[in-house]
Amino acid sequence: MSHLVPLCKGGQYRYHRLTKRPKMPNYKEGLNRNQQLLFPPSLDEYVDENNSVRAIDSYVDSIDLAALGIFTCKGVSDGQPAYHPALLLKIYLYGYLNSIRSSRKLEREIKRNVEMMWLCEGLTPGYKTIANFRKDNPSVLKQLFRDFVMLCRSVDLIDGEVVAIDGAFLRANASKNQLISEKMTRKDMESVDEKITEYLSSLEYSDTCENKEITPIVRKQDLDRLKKHKLKLSSNLQTLKENNATQYCKSDPDANLMRKPAHHLMAYNTQIAVDGKYKFIVATDISTKGTDLDQLYPLATQAKEATGNKEIKVAADAGYYNPKEIKKCVDECIDVYVPIQDKQKQHKDKGMFARDAFLYDEAKDCYHCPNHEILKRRKTIYEKNGIKRLMYFGTRSVCKVCPLRSQCLPDKTPAKRLWRWEHEALIEAHRTKMLTPKAKTMIKQRAALAEHPFGTIKQKLGWSHFLVRGKPKVSGENALIMLTYNFRRMLNLIGIKLFQKLIKASKSGNIEDIKQEIMEYIAVLAFFKAFFRQKMSLYI
């Protein structure tokens, strides 16, 4: 029971509990923590048949890791056996599937997570052993990614008819504070030189001045500090020279400062090629450049090899537009769809003639200007950045008195000049192709295909950064990320039990038996999804 008890001045009262509240019979009561319990006789009873750990276990056990040349981790001390690489691969697959990437967090999960206990069979490797597996086996991780793509291809989950290419910046394990820039370093050296000159002048003045207000000892210490800083800056410039680079990061030399609209970050440019059938990633790569200009051909050729489709169609955004890369793809019989960047828009906005206002005459090998004058070709071939250019010049006397000169040339330019790539006909054919309805459909499809994996990777799984350093190791972790994405995609598509059947069939060589079952399962699943989507639309 409760009574009114005065608790403060002014005659205010509130209820004060004098007796313990009686137990409520309607609530469930827990067990005594000191009571001894009989757990199930096996750990297997804690893991459901549809648990993803069973799929991980089946998949890893089917891999011949010795054939891949995997690095075996050493034991803690002499004579102690090492942990099997398959165990460590299982740990990482489980961790990445559940957004647990840190080796220390994985070590904790092994000791308290029932699923991890089941997966590891009671073994508890330390965080250093776990971390070393990821760092020491980048080539194996890349090969595992390629093998899983081949597994998807073997059951017709990948066709390579349409492949979308995209790139995204993933943060490196490096700080901007550790970045050395040639421009900023030289600017700092100039500033240090100025301060040294000022200090020397002050010291000279203090020596000659009768009334010494400034203590020379203090000034000498400051001077030594500046000289030491100058030596450090000189060392930084030497490091840049040795690496033949304009910037260099001490914590991760391969990482680069990449620019986004809102901010700058130390990152790697992650490239992926996504198959259009079921959105599996068929190719991936790492670039240290902040642009995608030279990434079209490498990704397209990797996708062509992975899918096995000789008539592959590749779609990318305007950031991949590079005439040289398009030429390489055409030579390899790869049908590419890349929007052409309109670099002449500024000229058009100012009322000036753009390049497309000048018409090329293939028969006469010349250009016709808007005033119907001829720009003739010079025999000299100019080469720049590996591109051979043919130059076409207008006549000075004609351009000087042309009524359209103000829309064509700056005041100080005597005559119009145009350059034409030796394979310009190929680019003109590409420009014509990009105006077709098919090309517009391909570009829309590209956005839906390529941006889906990155959205899943960054938002749902939290893989926005790399944990290792150096491009080779980052490439390995990137392959592990993409392998995990494909693994998750596979489980969502065909289910865990059917995936286990697929693994058994691949080991026994009876892929054809399981292929039909997978196609029927996907067809039924698609039917019910469409059915329920239609039903739900009736209530909206």
Which properties best describe this structure?
540 residues, alpha+beta, six-stranded mixed β-sheet, five-stranded antiparallel β-sheet, 17 helices, disordered N terminus
Helix-strand layout with pairing:
Blueprint: E1 2-6, E2 13-17, H1 52-61, H2 85-97, H3 103-112, H4 114-120, H5 127-136, H6 138-154, E3 162-171, E4 179-181, H7 182-208, H8 216-242, E5 247-249, E6 256-259, E7 264-275, E8 281-287, H9 296-307, E9 313-315, H10 323-331, E10 335-337, H11 345-349, E11 359-361, E12 366-368, E13 374-384, E14 387-393, H12 396-400, E15 417-421, H13 424-433, H14 437-460, H15 471-494, H16 496-508, H17 511-538
Summarize the structure.
By secondary structure, this protein is α+β, with helices and mostly antiparallel strands.
Description of the structure:
With 540 residues, this protein is an alpha+beta fold. Among the domains are: 73 residues; 88 residues, no CATH class. It contains 17 helices and 15 strands. The strands form four sheets. Strands 3, 6, 7, 8, 9 and 10 form a six-stranded mixed sheet that branches. Strands 11-12-13-14-15 form a five-stranded antiparallel sheet, with no helix packed on it. Strands 1-2 form a two-stranded antiparallel ribbon. The longest helix has 28 residues. It is flat, with a radius of gyration of 34 Å. The N terminus is likely disordered.
